[in-house]
Amino acid sequence: MADTSGNEDWNVVIAPDSPWWRLHLGEVWRYRDLFRELVVRDLTATYKQTILGPIWVLIQPLITSIMFAVIFGMVARMALPGIPALLFYMSAIVPWSLFSGVINKTSATLASNAPLMTKVYFPRLIPPLSSMTSTSFTFFVQLALFFVFAAAYRLSGSYAWSPGTALLMLPALILLEMMLAFGTGLIVASLTTRYKDLRFLIGFAVQLLMYMSPVIFPLAKVAPDSPVRPVLEANPLTPVIEGFRGALLGTYMDWSTLWYSLAFGTVVLIAGLALFQRAHRSYADVV
Q1: 228-259 confidence digits (pLDDT tens)
Q2: What rounded mean pLDDT belongs to the chain?
Q3: Cα–Cα distance between 221 and 229 in angstroms, integer?
Q4: Full domain range(s) for residue 77
Q5: Does residue 103 form part of some domain?
Q6: In a domain, 156, yes or no
Q7: Is residue 145 part of a domain?
Q8: Which residues contact 37 (CB under 8 A, 6 or more apart)?
Q9: What domain count does the chain have?
């Protein structure tokens, strides 16, 4: 409403020409109620009108782990000996689900929130941040499922599960993976505003990336002189997935390789933030 006295007292300034590195995190905090509502919306909408509801959070990684354990662990003998195949594959599938889930949801934030983003002002980082948060919540539930099965194996005496002090690296591994996934998701979300084909390719690309990561087989199974080895080592997810196995199962892990993932993730995150800040300014013109 206009001020009839002629004095204008504005408390919100929308300036599209601000540089990309000004993320306005203070505004994100002021809009925390909207952030919370979007997180709740993502969590409830995913399994709305389903028979099993939130139980799918547990069923999906469990079924996938069982299938991988039978096909690749027992038949193809790709799992490490001495470790139950179910735990071996669950220790990689759970973090992989976090990575793929954050990318898929973050990359679709501009398209899925178009009606809201073209009509109402709010910090544009809130939708991708809320998508990452809801996916992270699912990840921690699935990670708890892994610990339940690991404890069950230990109590039954069939596997002496003892990850050791490497378990302390788990928070760093989660942070690294979220950096890689969130940055990649922002890049894809920015590019899909102009190149709509990417939204059809992202699901296929993420699935293909799983076979280029040590999810099905550990890096130790690949010979040093194999032509596949350099491809796996160039993948920044390789140290992260191997690190999750090292932290959760106590397998051998060269922790110094995480510096490569950290450097790669930092570059990807900065590039994603820069592209996203640039893309959302003209989003209403191309949507």
Answers
A1: 999 999 999 999 999 999 999 999 999 999 99
A2: 85
A3: 10
A4: 25-286
A5: yes
A6: yes
A7: yes
A8: none
A9: 1
Burial of 49 (0-12, 13-18, 19+ CB in 10 A): exposed
Q: Note the pTM of the prediction, 2 decimals.
A: 0.86
Q: Computed from CA positions of residues 33, 34, 39, 40, in that sequence, does the dihedral angle turn out positive or negative?
A: positive
Per the listing, tokens 């106590």 go with 250
Q: Considering the domain boundaries, does residue 11 fall inside one?
A: no
Report the alpha-carbon angle 27-32-36, nearest 5.
150
pLDDT of 6 > 60? The answer is: no
